[in-house]
Write a structure and sequence with these properties.
The structure holds two protein chains of two kinds. Chain A is about 60% helix and about 5% strand. By secondary structure, chain A is mainly α. The chains are: A mainly alpha, B mainly alpha.
């Protein structure tokens, strides 16, 4: 699964060119801004190179993903404080529809949009914060087509929060406790509940009552018993699902058990042609993938059947830890095999030495470049890199500002 | 029969990789036009309105 140094360098170089267009070119103005974007571009190019060269998808992906999430919190909260003076969402801001659309709320907007033709989230259709409803909606649709549920491990700016906390301890405190696999359906239950509840109330009820991510974003101004209750709920859920449980269990508890967008993405993401598959001939049922899967996706049953459920976020952890390299990305319609050197092995049988060398080199290169793993990982890094570009650059500038002036606020 | 089946497999593999490449191409193309005219053109055809504070819909100002 490792790529040759030539293929890895070529892929990293193409990534560098693309990121120069999307991250560097838009930050040419100020020196600090440009330096910050250059650092992030080079870091992402390094991540791309290392994933292809070492074959360790999850190890390097999580470095990018965790930094991205914490930079998002930093810029989002400091922006709110600069613009509004606090993280609280006042009635005036809601009336002005000046709230950035959160992708997690998207499933709850569908029924009111289809049956009543109204947008119940208090954001502008266009030209709102971070682009408004339509640009963010189309970005999410793109993520569905390109990444499927992989959004949760390559594109989502919240995913790295519980992933970050789940990485802090070396081992899980509750190794021996067996979790009932039915808990995996909790996120689907949350999804169904909030979709119908939002339709009945004609309000984004998940954002008002249940969202654990309020802890790191914006929340209703606490000025009544109801908003006080809402705050208690989101603080408890946020502390529990984003910090305490990931720390204790070494799992992404929010993404795996609660996030309704994750559940929705599992269903609509089926239109994406990529899957993660287990090679039945190589799997020894050692159970390592099940123990290490951060989203509780692999169970005893799925391991017996040697199939990966639709809730897989394609983070690559199982591929990294599998001792027999039996798990890999696959493309629907293309026969799956973890043996990625079939053609070049055939080419190695060619008799004339010179022809053989050329044939082996060319076939190996083509195999490496056009396999499902390369294509999916490249799409994942590119998608995440473009969305994260502006956020991380801004965060680095703010950190520089903190060091030089003592404040994260620029305005 | 076997040859015909092989051709179909090769064709299917080729088409899937063309689709994969298309997805890869879609990412930069979308972000170049993020918040751009084509989104507005598509959105114009969608009869969606912002829900005002009073519970009534408001026509979006584009």
């Amino acid at each position: 699964m490792k790529k040759s140094i030539f293929t890895s360098s070529l892929l990293a170089f193409i990534m560098l060119i693309l990121l120069s267009t999307f991250i560097l070119a838009i930050n040419l103005g100020e020196t600090i801004q440009f330096t910050a974007s250059l650092l992030w571009t080079l870091f992402l190019t390094f991540i791309a190179f290392m994933i292809f060269r070492t074959g360790k998808v999850s190890t390097y992906r999580s470095m990018f993903f965790i930094i991205y999430a914490f930079c998002f919190i930093l810029i989002f909260v400091t922006n709110l404080i600069e613009e509004r003076g606090s993280m609280a969402l006042t009635a005036e801001i809601v009336a002005e529809r000046n709230v950035p659309l959160c992708p997690v709320a998207i499933p709850t907007l569908i029924l009111p949009a289809v049956f009543k033709q109204v947008l119940i989230f208090p954001t502008k259709l266009f030209d709102g914060p971070y682009g408004g409803f339509y640009p963010i909606l189309f970005m999410w649709l793109l993520s569905v087509v390109v990444l499927g549920r992989g959004w949760c491990s390559w594109g989502c700016f919240y995913g790295g929060i519980d992933e970050g906390f789940s990485k802090l301890r070396r081992t899980s405190l509750f190794k021996s406790i067996k979790m009932n696999p039915k808990w995996r359906y909790l996120s689907f239950a949350v999804l169904v509940t909030i979709v119908f509840w939002a339709f009945l109330e004609m309000e984004p009820v998940y954002c008002e009552w249940l969202c654990p991510l309020k802890l790191v974003t914006e929340y209703s101004e606490i000025n009544s018993l109801v908003t006080y209750l809402q705050a208690i709920i989101f603080i408890s859920l946020g502390m529990g699902l984003l910090i305490i449980l990931p720390l204790l269990l070494k799992k992404r508890t929010h993404c795996g058990l609660f996030c309704p967008l994750g559940a929705f993405q599992s269903i609509v993401g089926l239109i994406n042609p990529y899957r993660v598959k287990i090679d039945k001939t190589k799997c020894t049922e050692c159970g390592k993938c099940k123990r290490e899967c951060p989203l509780f996706v692999i169970t005893d049953e799925s391991m017996r059947e040697k199939s990966i459920p639709i809730t897989c976020s394609r983070c690559g952890k199982c591929m990294d830890v599998c001792p027999s390299h039996a798990i890999n990305y696959s493309l629907l319609g293309v026969p799956f095999s973890t043996d990625d050197r079939k053609l070049s092995k055939k080419a190695a049988l060619i008799k004339p030495v010179f022809t053989r060398r050329i044939a082996v080199g060319v076939t190996r290169f083509v195999e490496e470049l056009f396999d499902a793993r390369t294509m999916y990982v490249f799409s994942g890094i590119l998608f995440g890199a473009i969305i994260s570009g502006g956020m991380v650059t801004n965060a680095l500038v703010r950190i520089y500002h903190l060091i030089t002036t003592g404040s994260l606020l620029i305005k | 029969m076997k040859t015909k089946k092989s051709i179909l497999v090769v064709l299917r593999v080729f088409l899937m990789f063309v689709y994969a490449l298309f997805l890869l191409w879609l990412i930069p193309t979308f972000f170049i036009n993020y918040n751009g005219d084509w989104i507005k053109k598509v959105a114009d055809r969608i009869p969606l309105h912002e829900l005002g504070n009073d519970g009534h819909t408001q026509q979006n100002e584009k």
